[in-house]
Task: structure prediction
Amino acid sequence: MKPEYKPLKELNDKTLKYKTKVKVIHKSSPQQSPNKPRYQRLLFKDDEGFTMKGALFDSDIEKYAEALERNGEYELSNAMISAVPPQHASKPNEYSIIINARAQISPLTTDATALGPQYQAFATIPRDPFNTELIDVLGVVIYVTAPKAIYRSQGIEDSVREIYLTDHSYDRPFTVSLWNDILHTHEETLNSWPDSFNVVGVLALTGRSYKGFTLSSTMSTRIITNPEGEKADALRAWATNHENILTDHRSKLAEIHSSTTTTPVTKIEEINRKRASNTWQEERFNLKVTLPTASTENLRLYLGCSKCGRRTNETIDTTFTCTFCNVQSAKSEPRPILKVDAVDDSGSMALTFFAKEVEYLVGIPCIEMWKLKENDNDEVLAEKMFSLRQKNVTIEIGPTLALTTSRVLNWT
Result:
């Protein structure tokens, strides 16, 4: 007789006796906050797809290190359930499972290999930034960027550092962005990587559309500096036999990331000769052009998510949960797209401008463009487009996301 499991959505701080079946989909590294107990974050998911946070504190972190592992499935009963403080909650009435001596845990995972690294070759990784499955990779370190601060709209500072990895399956280094805690924890290790072509494992990454399709760290990300096993040994042998190619890749990345005061102007004729096989996602070029086809007919507006830009059917300025990027406080906002031909004395090429770029070129805020279109008042937009056609403009272009998702070279 199958046990009757209580779904996570029915658990709260009033629930005393229960039994539930969960999978550990996230398990962070232990953290230490000033003047507070050491803690480790977990995220559980049940068969209905509902998720609930979990936490371990102080000495329980070591006690339960092997009792709860990422990707493991468990029967969990009678653990204490606590309300998440509003300042830390990601949704109303959120609860967290506290793992301590009161919790009873029975493993349900029958395949022990499912708990270890599930390394994917770079060529087989789905190029979908909205895929929620976590990805483990094994790669040769080609290049490591310097730390960089990125400021969010709320004034919060995030730290990011990009590492470029490759393997035998892919002809181009793959970008992995390490953020905040994972970056600070491994700072000394990252500083030592540029000295040689190390083979490393990076676990629990997620896809992201950050400067092309990249992999990005999560709360569960771990770095294995000296991975063992047949795959790691084979990759080390491959790296030794292809050191000349790896050196060329490193030189190219160093050139792209080197700081220069001025970027030379590139002719369209040279851009048109480029192909997906010899263009890198990180490359940028300056064009000095006119935009003779700029017109209201080439301007399209739609309502999209304020976070990821994907189309939504919500009315303008509505707060909603985006089904693509899962942001719960997204807003529907106007997103203009302008498709034009750019021309210089060597030729022409099609370019696409998005959102703030269109706003800058046209000289009208996105919301005003939307109102003009909604009211069939194209006269103001037509005047702005006429003015734009008369100007010489310098534009920085780079490959679109399609280069790393589909090996298709378009410019933006």
User: Anything to note?
Assistant: The CA atoms of residues 51 and 253 lie 40 Å apart. The chain is about 20% helix and 35% strand. The first strand starts at residue 19 and ends at 27. The first helix runs from residue 60 to 63.
